[in-house]
Structure formats: C-alpha cells, structure tokens
C-alpha cells in the first residue's frame, strides 16, 4: 500500500576522491533500489486501485550541483523527475507518487557524511525536525502532490534559483560552496567508511 524510498547518504569530497565502487554503491542505494522497488510494487498497487509511493528526494535536487558530494544533487534530481513521470502514469489507477524534498533536517545524515561541523554553522531557521518532514510528506502524498518541498524558506530558495539565469545560479552555488569549504577548513574531505 505504501512504499517510502527513504534510504540515503552523502559521499563527501570531489568525484575523483572516491573509488568507483563507492560511487556505484551510492547509485545503487539512491537510484537503482528506489526505482526497482517501485517497479516491483507498482503492479500490486494498480491491481488494487490504491497505492502510495514517496521518494525522499531533497531541495538539493532543485538546485544546481555543488562541488563535492558530486552525485547527490544529480541523484535527487533523478528522483524528482522519476516521481513526476510515475505520478502522471499512475494517478488514474489510484496510485499517488510524491517526490518529498526536505531542506536541512535534524537526523544522523550529516554525522554519517562527516559534514556535521560544517552544517551546524547554518542558521537555526534553516533546519526542520524529521517528524515535521514526515507528517508533511505523508499529507502531501495523500493529497496527490507530485512534488512537495518542506518549509516556506526552502520553497523560497527553490523559487529564487528558478528565477535566476543558469550562469548566475551556478555562480551563487560556487560562491557559497567556497565559503562553506573555508568554514569547514578542508577542501576535499575523504568519504567516511560505512
Ligand atoms: N537530513 C537532511 O538534512 C536531509 C535533507 C534532504 C534530504 N534528505 C534525505 O532524507 C533521507 C533520509 O535521510 P536522514 O536525514 O533521515 O539521514 P539518516 O538519519 O542518516 O538516515 C538515513 C537512512 O538511510 C539508510 N541507509 C543509509 N545507507 C544505506 C544503505 N547503504 N543501505 C540501506 N539503507 C541505508 C539508513 O539505514 P541505517 O540506519 O540502517 O544505516 C537510515 O535509515 C535520505 O534520502 C536523505 O538524502 C536528508
């Protein structure tokens, strides 16, 4: 009845800083697994005329890619586009599909990726609690929202980047990433072992 593709993590550092198997694992968890699970569970949902699929993407999927965590924004953008197509294909069969796009959320995510010290410098108003994100996400899929961004500030950030010309958006991301790397005091963090 309900599939929530939530598993995810970040691989810090530049693309060349990690060996291929680490990138392949990342693609397996963030792209292949959610896609395969949806493919396997969808027929039953359609047959019963009822189903819900939540693909936990990210605000990052709406923004230009950042240097470091090279595949993260790309994987989340994939989940957003995949959700849109799947939602349109299945809405007449009682199956709702939502790409849930949180911004910074309190969880273990940034401990796992080794970015805790860096992101803890973000202002408190940028952060949401996981239970709020979950409650809003479940309401969104029930309503039939195809893409849902948690939080007014995150929606404003998405809109701002949509209005900016591509070059200006990339320049803004590049500037902010540089600032964060200086704050972190490290250029290309090595990916932590899981
Ligand atoms: N936290 C944020 O700021 C934020 C913002 C936007 C989007 N998101 C997205 O939200 C989702 C949930 O992340 P979270 O913030 O709740 O982080 P989290 O606390 O670190 O939880 C990550 C979850 O993914 C599972 N997972 C990680 N690697 C896995 C693997 N190789 N195989 C199977 N399961 C794996 C973990 O399972 P174990 O506990 O068993 O390791 C855990 O349940 C992710 O898709 C993330 O990209 C998070």
For the termini, the CA-CA separation is 31 Å
Order of helices and strands: EHEHEEHHEHEHH
Q: What share of the residues lie within helices?
A: 40-55%
Give every kind of bound small molecule, once each: NADP nicotinamide-adenine-dinucleotide phosphate
Number of helices: 7
Low-confidence stretches: 183-194
CATH H-level homologous superfamily name: NAD(P)-binding Rossmann-like Domain
Category by helix and strand content: alpha/beta
Estimate the strand proportion: 5-15%
Could you name the CATH class? Answer: Alpha Beta
Structure description:
The chain has a single domain (2-150, 162-184), classed as Rossmann fold, CATH 3.40.50. Helix content is 52%, strand content 12%. The protein is an alpha/beta fold. The protein has seven helices and six strands, in the order E-H-E-H-E-E-H-H-E-H-E-H-H. The protein has helices spanning 20-48, 72-90, 109-112, 116-119, 130-143, 152-163, 166-184; strands at 2-5, 51-56, 95-101, 105-106, 128-129, 147-149. The protein has a four-stranded parallel beta sheet with strand order 1-2-3-6, with helices on both faces. Strands 4-5 form a two-stranded parallel sheet. It binds NADP nicotinamide-adenine-dinucleotide phosphate (NAP). NADP nicotinamide-adenine-dinucleotide phosphate (NAP) is lined by residues 6-9, 29, 56, 58, 102, 104-105, 107-109, 112.
């Amino acid at each position: 009845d309900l599939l929530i593709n939530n598993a995810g993590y970040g691989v810090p550092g530049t693309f060349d800083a990690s060996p291929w198997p680490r990138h392949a694992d990342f693609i397996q968890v963030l792209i292949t697994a959610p896609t395969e699970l949806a493919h396997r569970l969808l027929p039953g949902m359609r047959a019963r005329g009822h189903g819900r699929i939540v693909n936990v993407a990210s605000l990052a999927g709406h923004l230009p890619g950042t240097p470091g965590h090279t595949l993260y924004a790309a994987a989340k953008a994939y989940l957003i586009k995949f959700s849109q197509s799947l939602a349109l294909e299945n809405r007449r069969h009682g199956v709702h599909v939502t790409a849930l796009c949180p911004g910074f959320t309190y969880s273990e995510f940034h401990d796992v990726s080794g970015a805790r010290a860096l992101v803890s410098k973000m202002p408190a108003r940028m952060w949401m609690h996981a239970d709020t994100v979950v409650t809003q996400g479940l309401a969104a899929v029930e309503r039939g929202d195809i893409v849902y961004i948690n939080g007014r500030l995150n929606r404003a950030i998405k809109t701002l980047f949509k209005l900016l010309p591509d070059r200006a958006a990339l320049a803004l991301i590049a500037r902010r990433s540089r600032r964060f790397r200086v704050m972190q005091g490290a250029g290309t963090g090595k990916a932590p072992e899981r």
